[in-house]
């Protein structure tokens, strides 16, 4: 399925986003997956920041300290693991984080134990992703 076909299936009520000056950090090394997530977030009013490596994620997270509202973090990255990224981010700020992976949830359980809000196994639907992002944003606003 082409990216534009996927995006036409995403409805604004799936996330119910308000316009915001905050960012959502996407850490995904697979180009098509990262772009799909980014375009989905843009289409409902979020400001996504997309990076492909763990080290880039940590650097960008520190640069935008306090302005990142949530993180979507792939566990398998080319340089370091998602767990290493998550631990480094938590040293700076505790933002809602959704772990994603093509592997079993057992591999990301340590991140969930540390406070990550959940796990999505690839492949996942855009509706499923949208719902989880909405839950993350809602949890951040309550805190």
Short description:
This protein is of the alpha/beta class and 143 residues long.
Please provide a written account of the structure.
With 143 residues, the chain is an alpha/beta fold. It has a single domain (20-142), classed as Response regulator (Rossmann fold), CATH 3.40.50.2300. 44% of the residues lie in helices and 18% in strands. It is built from six helices and five strands, in the order αβαβαβαβαβα. It has helices spanning 3-8, 31-43, 54-63, 82-92, 109-114, 126-142; strands spanning 23-27, 47-51, 68-74, 97-101, 118-121. A five-stranded parallel β-sheet has the order 2-1-3-4-5, with helices on both faces. Helix 5 links the parallel strand 4 and strand 5. The chain is globular, with a radius of gyration of 14 Å. Residues 1-17 have low confidence and may be disordered.
The helicity comes to: 40-55%
How many strand units? 5
Question: Helix segment count?
Answer: 6
| Mean pLDDT score | 82
Descriptive key words:
single chain; 143 residues; alpha/beta; Rossmann fold; five-stranded parallel sheet; 6 helices; 44% helix; disordered N terminus
Detail the topology: elements first, then pairings.
Layout: H1 3-8, E1 23-27, H2 31-43, E2 47-51, H3 54-63, E3 68-74, H4 82-92, E4 97-101, H5 109-114, E5 118-121, H6 126-142
Parallel strand pairs: 1-2, 1-3, 3-4, 4-5
Helix pairs in contact: 3-4
């Amino acid at each position: 399925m082409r990216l534009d076909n996927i995006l036409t299936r995403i409805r604004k009520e799936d996330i119910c986003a308000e316009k915001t000056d905050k960012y959502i950090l996407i850490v995904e090394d697979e180009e098509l997956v990262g772009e799909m997530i980014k375009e989905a977030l843009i289409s409902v009013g979020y400001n996504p920041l997309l990076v492909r490596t763990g080290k880039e994620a940590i650097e960008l997270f520190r640069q935008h300290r306090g302005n990142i509202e949530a993180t979507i973090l792939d566990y398998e990255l080319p340089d370091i693991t998602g767990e290493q990224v998550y631990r480094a981010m938590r040293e700076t700020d505790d933002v809602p984080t959704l772990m994603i992976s093509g592997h079993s949830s057992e591999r990301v359980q340590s991140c969930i134990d540390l406070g990550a809000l959940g796990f999505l196994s690839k492949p996942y639907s855009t509706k499923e992703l949208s719902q989880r992002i909405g839950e993350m944003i809602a949890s951040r606003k309550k805190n």
